[in-house]
Amino acid sequence: MGSYIFRRLLAVLGVLLAVSVLVFSISSLLPANVAYLILGPFAPPEQVRVLELRLGLTDPIWQQYWRWVSGFLSGDLGQSMLMNRPIAPLLAEAIGHSLILTLSSFVLIATIGVTLGIVAALHHGKPLDHGVSIITYLGVAVPEFFWAIVVIMVFAGWLGWLPSSGYEPLASGFWVWAQHLIAPTLTLVFAHLAHVSRLTRSSMIEIMQSPYIVAARAKGLPERIIVRHHALRNALLPTITVLALDFGRLMGGIVVVETVFGYPGLGRLIVFSIQNRDLPTLQAAILVVAAIYALANLTADLLYARLNPKIRYGRNVS
Amino acid sequence: MSLQLKIGLLLTLTIVLLGLLAPWIAPHPWDTIAIKSRFLPPNSTYWLGTDEFGRDVLSRVLMGTGLSIAMGVSATLVSLAIGIPIGLAAGYFQGRTDEVLMRFADVLMAVPPIMLGLLVLAVTPPSLWKTALTVGFVYIPPIARVTRSVTLSLAHEDFIQAAKARAETNTYILFRELLPNAWPPLIVEASLRVTYAILLGSALSFLGLGAQPPSSDWGLMISEARSFIDRAPWIALAPGLAMCALVIGVNLIGDGAREYLDPRLKAGVGKA
A78 near A71, Cβ under 8 Å? Predict the structure, then answer.
């Protein structure tokens, strides 16, 4: 297991390296370069040339890439073009905001989703199962941005309970801070609940019909013990993989949700930097998201290996 | 056929039919600006009201139906065609093949779909078919991964050992032995993918990187209606609810089909 973890960590680094090449090459295809963007559309061409030379934009592409990556590794993420601030603190602040949002949503999704899935599976075909299905169907069928608008319409417009957008630091009071978190969290949880609960339900139903459960029933074990000790562990295996995917989807979900709610996190930073062609910020932000996501994936794989005795990584099974 | 599957088929076919017939049944032109009839609430002439340019919301929603369906289906076909073979090979051959294929998938998966989409689409002038292609490309890894995990659990089953003992070719084992048994989870996944593709496509349009005005793409419509949400909520609600109905329809088909295809579930023996 130890050597497996080591090899996977190396693989994660490899993946991040590949992602950095991908991000860098795609964004260097953007029509306008940085010098042009800094000086604005009416700058005389010779001035653009001078700045290009100074910024090293005329160097071969691999030299530019190397400069960017080595800067990244030494903690120098460069300068945001539009906000004229170093990227690192800008990004750190956005990550902090986004992590609060994603983690609170993630915990809610995992607990509510798995519970709903198990309840639905144990009442397979009964009204409760249909009720759960309808709720989760609604969640997945409504796009996040539409949920966000409905949440604003209901909680900010009609009821007036929550602010429609924005963010307040914790310093201005816990309740004010939490109020700004509720609406985006609610949106994210609703929009992402279905995958977890549906998968838990379908694998739970499948497990409950497998021979070893039938055998356990034949032994006369109470249903509660069968569910808890025999079925759950196997039924939750696929769910774990999906939870890691869901973490990634949450990181994606924040793009739309933060944009609609004007919540100053990573997602809004990314959209903002695309709209304003702020390349250095875009590159750094996406690479950071990739790093967070890669670690989440690794965690899921390790958990999967740990929980499933049938799969042993690091040894060749032929 | 279960009730679920019937409702799903009915809902989806109705929407598809409405989408196909849209040019003939739309009560008003979808793109004619009429300043005098702006922001009309739903009434007997304009069943779903009018938008900020006085265009009929119902006609626009109808004309947007085809766009959404085409987006979902074409994107999913792209990702299935590439993702399934990758997943089968990775799960069956394991070892080095698995490593290489999954690391390739990891690179694509290391960035959340919408961000990968944003990154790709940020460099080209936006248009709807580019968005569809990008969405399909972005969703290859999840399909490959689900296929792989199903294959992994099947690879050591007796019927695969038997096929090996019969000296069947690898292609036969992958596509004739493993694939049919991997279908039930794949159908759930593919149906979710169609809906995710519709949702991701519309989200990209919502963010301005898909369909462009004056297109009646649902995501774009909702995005444009955002500013008028307090005075004219129907402009956003109509396309939103239409998307909701379509996505639910496709999901119901996926779920219904799974129970229909999986003989163990269909038999429904005992308490489950």
Answer: yes
